[in-house]
Design goal:
The chain has 415 residues and is of the alpha+beta class. The chain has two domains: 24-195 and 296-363, Antithrombin, subunit I, domain 2 (Antithrombin, Chain I, domain 2, 2-Layer Sandwich), CATH 3.30.497.10; 202-293 and 365-396, Alpha-1-antitrypsin, domain 1. It is built from nine helices and 16 strands. Strands 1, 5, 6, 7, 8, 9, 10, 14, 15 and 16 form a ten-stranded mixed β-sheet that branches. Strands 3-2-4-13-12-11 form a six-stranded mixed β-sheet, sandwiched between helices. The radius of gyration is 21 Å and the shape is globular.
C-alpha cells in the first residue's frame, strides 16, 4: 500500500489534522522524545569521525530504552529518566502515552507504510518478572519470548525478526555468537516507506557537483522537478529549511541546508530542540524548485558511550546498575546494560524514501529563494508533521558514500 502520487495532480487530499486530540501525556512524551532526539543526535555527531554521514532513529532508541526503563529501579531509573527527558512524567503516563502514540502513528496515513515493532528475548533460566513482561506486552505491544542463547541458531532467530520488521533492510543486529554474559535482548524495529507527494522526474536526474566540507567535490545524482510546487520553508542568514511532503503530507522530510559547505558538521553538534522548534514554527508555504541528491545510506553504531555521556552511565555499571523491577530478587550490581546496538538504513530516490532502524539493548528572516539546490552537506529529519514526532535524524556529508560497517562489542566493566 504505497502512495504512487504524480507530480501534476499533487496526490490525495492532504491530512490537515489528527483523527483525535493528543492527550496531555502524549504531548509530554513527544516533547520528551524530541528532546532526547536532539541530545542523542548532538552526541552521536560529536563522537563520530569528521566527514562521515550519520543517520539515527531516535524514536527506535527511545522505545528500546523505554522498555528497559520499566525494569530499572532506584538511582538507575532516575538517571534513565533524566537521559530520556522523562522527568515529571509518571512511569504509568509514559507507558500509556507510548501505547497511544504507537497506535496513532501506525494508522495515520494509509499512503505511507510505517511499522513499529518491539520484542524481548530472555534466557530460559532467567525469566523476567510477570509485571515487567505484562507492561511491555500491553503498552509497547512487545513480543516476549524465551530463547536458549547457547543454541547455534539463537542469533538468527532474533535477526530474522528484525529482518521481517524492517522489510529486509536490516539483516542483523544481534551478534553471533551471543556473549555469555547476555541474559536478555530488548529490540525495537522501525520501518518507513513513503512516496513523495510530488515525485521527482527520473528523466531529469543527472550528475552534478556536490561540495564537500573539506573543499573537494564529488559528482552526485541530483534529482529535480520541472515544475514548482507548494512546499513549506523558512530561510535566514544561516540556513534554509524546507519540508518535502510524503503522500497526504502528514509525514515530511525536513531538510536543513546551511549556507556554507562546512556548516552541517558544526550545526549537527549544536542543534537544539528550541532552535528546531523555532524553524518549524516559521515554516511558510511557498512555490519553489527543489534539487535534492539521490542517496542510500547504511549506518551502524554502538551507543554505550553516547548514552553514558547523556547521563546513563550507572545503567552500564556492572557494580551499581539496579534492574530490580526486571528480575525477582535482583539487587544493584546483579544485572546491567552491556550493549546498545543501533542500525539504520535510508534510501532517497525520485519516488520517495525508504528508511528503517533497529535498536537492541543487551542487559548485562531572509527572502525565500525561487530554487533550492541541496548541493552541499545538509541535515535532514523524517518526521510526522501533525504530532511533531521525529522518526529519523541524519547529516549527509557525502551522498555518494553508503558506509556500511560492523559494530564491535566490548564487555562493560566496573570502573
Amino acid at each position: 500500500m504505497f502512495a504512487g502520487l504524480v507530480a501534476c495532480g499533487g496526490g490525495a487530499d492532504p491530512l490537515t489534522g489528527l483523527p483525535r486530540e493528543l492527550s496531555v501525556a502524549e504531548q509530554q512524551l513527544i516533547e520528551a522524545d524530541n528532546g532526547f532526539a536532539f541530545s542523542l543526535f548532538r552526541e552521536v555527531n560529536r563522537q563520530e569521525e569528521a566527514g562521515q554521514n550519520v543517520f539515527v532513529s531516535p524514536l527506535s532508541v527511545a522505545m528500546a530504552l523505554g522498555m528497559t526503563y520499566n525494569g530499572a529501579a532506584g538511582t538507575t531509573r532516575a538517571a534513565m529518566a533524566e537521559a530520556l527527558a522523562l522527568q515529571g512524567m509518571s512511569i504509568g503516563d509514559v507507558n500509556q502515552a507510548y501505547r497511544d502514540l504507537i497506535d496513532l502513528l501506525r494508522g495515520l496515513d494509509g499512503g505511507v507504510e510505517f511499522t513499529l515493532a518491539n520484542s524481548i528475548w530472555h534466557r530460559p533460566d532467567l525469566t523476567p518478572l510477570q509485571t515487567f513482561q505484562d507492561v511491555n506486552r500491553n503498552f509497547f505491544d512487545a513480543t516476549v519470548q524465551s530463547l536458549d542463547f547457547s543454541l547455534p541458531g539463537a542469533s538468527a532467530t532474533m535477526n530474522q525478526w528484525v529482518d521481517r520488521n524492517t522489510n529486509g533492510k536490516i539483516k542483523t543486529i544481534v551478534p553471533d555468537p551471543i556473549p555469555d554474559q547476555i541474559v536478555m535482548y530488548l529490540i525495537n524495529a522501525i520501518y518507513f516507506k513513503g512516496d513523495w507527494t510530488f515525485e521527482f522526474d527520473k528523466g531529469r536526474t543527472k550528475d552534478q557537483p556536490f561540495q564537500l566540507a573539506d573543499g573537494g567535490k564529488v559528482m552526485a545524482r541530483m534529482m529535480s522537478r520541472e515544475e514548482k510546487h507548494q512546499v513549506r520553508m523558512f530561510s535566514d542568514a544561516d540556513v534554509t529549511v524546507v519540508d518535502l511532503p510524503y503522500s497526504r503530507r502528514a509525514y515530511v522530510m525536513t531538510v536543513v541546508l546551511p549556507r556554507e559547505a562546512t556548516g552541517a558538521e558544526s550545526l549537527a553538534t549544536q542543534l537544539t530542540q528550541e532552535r528546531w522548534n523555532g524553524w518549524i514554527a516559521e515554516l511558510d508555504s511557498t512555490s519553489i524548485l527543489v534539487s535534492l541528491p539521490k542517496f542510500t545510506l547504511e549506518y551502524a553504531l554502538r551507543l554505550n558511550d553516547v548514552l553514558k555521556a547523556l547521563g546513563m552511565a550507572e545503567a552500564f555499571n556492572p557494580c551499581l546498575a539496579d534492574f530490580g523491577n526486571m528480575f525477582a530478587g535482583a539487587k544493584p550490581g546483579d544485572f546491567y546494560i552491556d550493549d546498545v546496538r543501533h542500525k539504520t538504513f535510508v534510501d532517497v530516490n525520485e519516488e520517495g524514501t525508504e528508511a528503517a532502524g533497529a535498536t537492541s539493548v543487551g542487559i548485562g528572516l531572509t527572502s525565500a529563494p525561487a530554487r533550492i539546490e541541496v548541493d552541499r552537506p545538509f541535515i535532514f529529519a523524517i518526521r510526522e508533521r501533525l504530532t511533531g514526532s521525529i522518526l529519523f535524524l541524519g547529516r549527509i556529508m557525502n551522498p555518494t558514500v553508503s558506509q556500511p560497517r560492523d559494530i564491535v562489542s566490548i564487555p562493560e566493566r566496573c570502573p
